[in-house]
Design goal:
609 residues, alpha/beta, six-stranded antiparallel beta sheet, 26 strands, binds fructose -6-phosphate
């Protein structure tokens, strides 16, 4: 989704701004733009496509330095990805420039009114009404500051905004309502961004704006206040990661780096949380009293996090006997779910910014449910609005396809299930057995990663197929959905995850030599059933790639290729089983020449509903 970066103070120059938005590329975008203030002039550059290949010299500043600048990556919503629609957008005079993330819902009526007042529009975007509104209000308001605030009060919708005014080139005006804004506090410079990634090159000290707040940034500091004008004191927080965490570090792609980091990220998800003596987990962000009164859980999430949520349901029901429902973030509000007393709503989100999941959290709070977040990004909106939660500590995930966050989510959900289970009669022995298995996962994940070349070789043989099925049951059914999602999003191959027993109720009609099936069959409890499903596929001429535990000769006999995963407990099978699926999808996409880190049409953090 769109990205914002702004910089005021020492060292401001076009290169720094372009470097800043390059660090936001992972969010997904289709056009970009930069605006710098030098003397009392604003100079802009806007382009369609990737930032790579363009250098800052394209911004002709006539040899002068700049005082401040804003830069943006746009993921088109209102209007096609064209230069005219790329941000920044300016007012009629060219003295106000503004970048925006989010959607202004009442832009149509505002635009009509502004047009009638003589304003000329040059784009199809919702954003462009904002600089014109400020321009209009400047005619009657005493200051830019007042006009900026006045304009914000007229907007309906979601925004994260950064604006500049040619007559005050040493300031950037920012505001947040529903779309994240984080300030970076450097020595003799102040920065703004839509997430902390572009800030770490300059500072680790940050401030997260809350909805309804605005800030004015100068080189030596900033002031924050509410839209109503009341000043607010903000807490300075430290970014927990450094520059190496958001760089590729020798890997050809972030996705491969992140897949390869899983032994460590899985470990970080349970590190310091296992209480061996009691066979349980210590989850600092969620108080005991809250967990003791839980009678049912309702998980809300989207995409990969939703797939993790489906596994979470099985974990919570099997280990803790807590009835659990899973909803898409986008469905929760509109399906009017029954939320009874004692319901704990668990929001799972890597980014902590997904608009649909956030909307579900807000709805859950309105109907009086307790909410906890299972998020990766510390200080993200969902984490903050839930108030309580369990961070997965996977480290920055830059590749658009979620990989290490998924396995870390599963580990954290397992800890929660064991903890709730121990409160509700899960035996000490069972708890310990489970925790022991969890602690073996990092080493087992390393073993799987060592098989990377062989998986790449298998992938090469299937890379030209245009349709795939992934089948699994129980814990491996959501893993099948996740495997299919990984393949389709980065290689653009149509792939479908199917509950294996459901095959004969329809999808088996798709089986042919051209439609290979990935059969997930590593759980002991339903192994025989999976063998039966594999026979049915083979009998119809289907080709099988099987993911099984070591030594399953029968499945090996049915499959064209077999990938073995190390032995673990059934509920933990997806943590290991998904790793070869991630590697498989990655290798297929590379073979097809796809841009795995920036797949077409996708955004890393989906901040619009
Ligand atoms: C798929 C993927 C998406 C996200 C989804 C939710 O690889 O990354 O499906 O899982 O957009 O994002 P978060 O977890 O940030 O809420």
């Amino acid at each position: 989704m769109c990205g914002i970066f702004g910089y005021v103070g020492a060292g401001a120059n076009p290169e720094v701004l372009i470097e800043g938005i390059k660090r936001l590329e992972y969010r997904g975008y289709d056009s970009w733009g930069v605006c710098v203030a030098c003397d009392d002039q604003l100079t802009m550059l806007r382009r369609v496509g990737r930032i790579g290949g363009v250098d800052a010299a394209d911004l002709d500043l006539g040899g002068k330095g700049c005082l401040s600048g804003i830069a943006h990556t746009r993921w088109a919503t209102h209007g096609a990805p064209t230069e005219a629609n790329a941000h920044p957008h300016a007012d009629c005079t060219g003295k106000i420039a503004l970048i925006h993330n989010g959607i202004i819902e009442n832009y149509g009526s505002l635009r009509e009114k502004l047009r009638a007042q003589g304003h000329r529009f040059r784009s199809e975007t919702d954003t462009e009404v904002i600089p014109h509104l400020i321009e209009e209000l400047l005619k009657s308001e005493p200051s830019f500051d007042a006009a900026f605030q006045g304009a914000l009060r007229l907007l309906v919708g979601a925004y994260g905004i950064a604006a500049m005014w040619a007559e005050d080139p040493g300031a950037i005006y920012v505001a947040r309502h529903g779309s994240p804004i984080v300030l970076g506090l450097g020595k003799d410079r102040t920065l703004v961004a839509s997430d902390p990634a572009p800030l770490v090159a300059h500072t680790r000290e940050v401030i997260y704006l809350d909805d309804g707040e605005l800030a004015i940034l100068h080189c030596d500091g900033f002031e924050t206040r509410t839209l109503e004008g009341a000043s607010v004191n903000k807490r300075v927080q430290q970014i927990a990661f450094g520059l190496p965490d958001i760089e590729r570090g020798g890997f050809p792609h972030f996705m491969l780096k992140e897949i390869s980091e899983q032994p460590e990220s899985i470990h970080n998800a349970y590190r310091g949380r296992i209480v061996r003596a009691e066979g349980t987990a210590k989850l600092g962000g969620v108080d005991e009293a809250l967990l003791r009164k839980v009678q049912r859980c309702h998980i809300v999430a989207c995409g990969t996090s939703w797939n993790a949520g489906l596994i979470g349901k099985y974990l919570l029901e099997n280990l803790a006997r807590v009835p659990t429902q899973v909803s898409y973030g986008a469905e929760f509000r509109y399906s009017h779910p029954v939320i009874e007393a004692g319901t704990l709503v668990i929001a799972i989100s890597q980014s902590g910014e997904t608009a649909d999941t956030l909307a579900a959290v807000r709805e859950a709070k309105i109907v009086g449910a307790d909410t906890i977040g299972v998020c990766n990004v510390v200080g993200s909106t969902i984490a903050r609005e839930c108030g309580k939660g369990i961070y997965i500590h996977a480290g920055p995930e830059i590749g658009v396809a979620s990989t290490k966050a998924f396995t870390s989510q599963l580990v954290v959900l397992s800890l929660l299930a064991v903890h709730l289970g121990r409160m509700r009669g899960l035996s000490l022995r069972a708890g310990l057995l489970y925790l022991d298995a969890l602690e073996r996962l990092p080493e087992q994940a390393s073993q799987l990663l060592a098989d990377r070349e062989r998986i790449a070789e298998i992938a090469r043989q299937y890379a030209r197929c245009e349709n795939f099925l992934y089948v699994g049951r129980l814990y491996e059914y959501p893993a099948a959905l996740e495997g299919a999602l990984k393949l389709k999003e980065i290689s653009y191959i149509h792939a479908e995850g199917v509950q294996a027993a459901e095959m004969k109720h329809g999808p088996i009609a798709l089986i042919s030599p051209e439609v290979p099936t990935v059969v997930l069959a590593a759980q002991e409890e339903i192994r025989d059933k999976m063998v039966g499903n594999a026979h049915e596929i083979r009998a119809r001429g289907g080709r099988i790639i099987a993911v099984t535990q070591e030594g399953d000769r029968e499945m090996e006999g049915l499959a064209e290729h077999t990938i073995h995963i190390p032995k673990t407990l059934d509920p933990l099978v997806p943590v290991l089983g998904v790793i070869p699926l991630q590697l498989f999808a990655y290798s297929v996409a590379i073979e097809r020449g796809c841009d795995v880190d920036k797949p077409r049409n996708l955004a890393k953090s989906v901040t619009v509903e």
